[in-house]
Recover the amino acids of this structure.
């Protein structure tokens, strides 16, 4: 059997401006959201989920995403994605200039209903329509499979269920399948099991992973996926986030932690982890939330030392 050459370059997809901000008590203006995105791009992020086109009644924090899309910086060099829950969202996203759209299918009935008020099958059918239309219109479309490990309402999820929907979304034209641990309940062994199930129907080059750090295992889960061959990971600056529809979920794995671990392991992400320090601080000031991944204090000392400040040795 031919072993595929595994690339040493890894993509970090920044989801703070969507997954992170959607659950904040404080709603930022489109201008403030753009300011955060500009700083992320300035720090080297080249894949950013810039917002969602969802009902402003359901998620007021994402109102004005069209304005955000109109103002996005460095559009030629950065791949900006928009989350869409239905065809109306797809149309609004494309009208605002989005060229990459993400659909999110929660693979359990209760979670999908809580999130978008549809059965899993109804949403899967809606998303097949969106994926097919996107391919016809030259828009890149990707599918998230949410609560792929455990659902806050229904408990553990069978990897075969995830495989079924991965297959269905890929057949409809999803360029990527993003396996999402929405509530941060996965562990490395479970990650391996889901990747083996999905990997049976989708090439690993088309699989990305999305981990939350609720139980402190997100980086271990990134490593397990990396060892399986996954080369694209979602992360949010400072670990910003949560999910308003899944009780108990906390933020995504922090961008600076993923960038630092990959950098230390010799992978090329195109991101200098130290350059993320001021962005974490900015996100903290904007949201009024205490932020920072596991490595943040150490990174901040290195960063401030380089800037001529006193590196704090203790
Ligand atoms: N963007 C903006 N408005 C939308 C919309 C979209 N994509 N889809 C529907 N709406 C509006 C409708 O126009 C309607 O507006 P009105 O009340 O002023 O007439 C209202 O929302 C209700 O429409 P309906 O189709 O009945 O939707 P619903 O009430 O069944 O809600 C969703 C379904 C998908 C619109 C809503 O649950 C939602 O936006 N969920 C997103 C949740 C989310 O972002 N989760 C986190 C990311 S996975
Ligand atoms: Zn998430």
């Amino acid at each position: 059997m031919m072993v595929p050459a595994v690339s040493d370059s890894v993509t970090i997809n920044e989801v703070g401006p969507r997954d992170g901000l959607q659950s904040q008590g404080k709603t930022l203006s489109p201008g403030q959201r753009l300011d955060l995105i500009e700083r992320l791009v300035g720090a080297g992020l080249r894949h950013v989920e810039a917002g969602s086109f969802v009902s402003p009644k359901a998620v007021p924090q994402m109102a004005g995403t069209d304005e955000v899309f109109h103002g996005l910086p460095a559009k030629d060099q950065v791949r900006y994605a928009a989350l869409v829950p239905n065809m109306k969202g797809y149309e609004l996203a494309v009208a605002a200039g989005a060229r990459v759209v993400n659909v999110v299918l929660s693979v359990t009935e209760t979670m999908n209903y809580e999130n978008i008020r549809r059965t899993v099958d109804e949403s899967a059918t809606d998303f097949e329509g969106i994926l097919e239309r996107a391919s016809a219109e030259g828009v890149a479309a990707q599918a998230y499979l949410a609560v792929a490990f455990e659902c806050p309402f229904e408990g553990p999820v069978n990897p075969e269920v995830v495989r079924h929907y991965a297959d269905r979304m890929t057949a409809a034209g999803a360029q990527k399948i993003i396996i999402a641990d929405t509530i941060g309940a996965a562990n490395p062994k479970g990650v391996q099991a889901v990747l083996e199930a999905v990997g049976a129907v989708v090439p690993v080059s088309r699989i990305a992973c999305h981990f939350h750090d609720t139980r402190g295992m997100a980086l271990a889960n990134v490593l397990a996926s990396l060892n399986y061959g996954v080369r694209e990971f979602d992360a949010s600056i400072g670990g910003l986030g949560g999910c308003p529809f899944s009780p108990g979920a906390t933020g995504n794995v922090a961008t600076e932690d993923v960038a630092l671990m990959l950098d230390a392991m010799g992978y090329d992400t195109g991101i200098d982890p130290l350059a993320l320090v001021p962005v974490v601080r900015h996100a903290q000031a904007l949201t009024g939330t205490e932020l920072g991944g596991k490595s943040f204090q150490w990174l901040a000392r290195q960063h401030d030392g380089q800037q001529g400040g006193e590196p704090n040795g203790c």
User: Anything to note?
Assistant: The chain has one domain: 11-273. The radius of gyration is 18 Å. The beta strands are 11-14, 47-52, 79-83, 100-106, 140-146, 150-151, 155-156, 176-181, 207-211, 232-235.
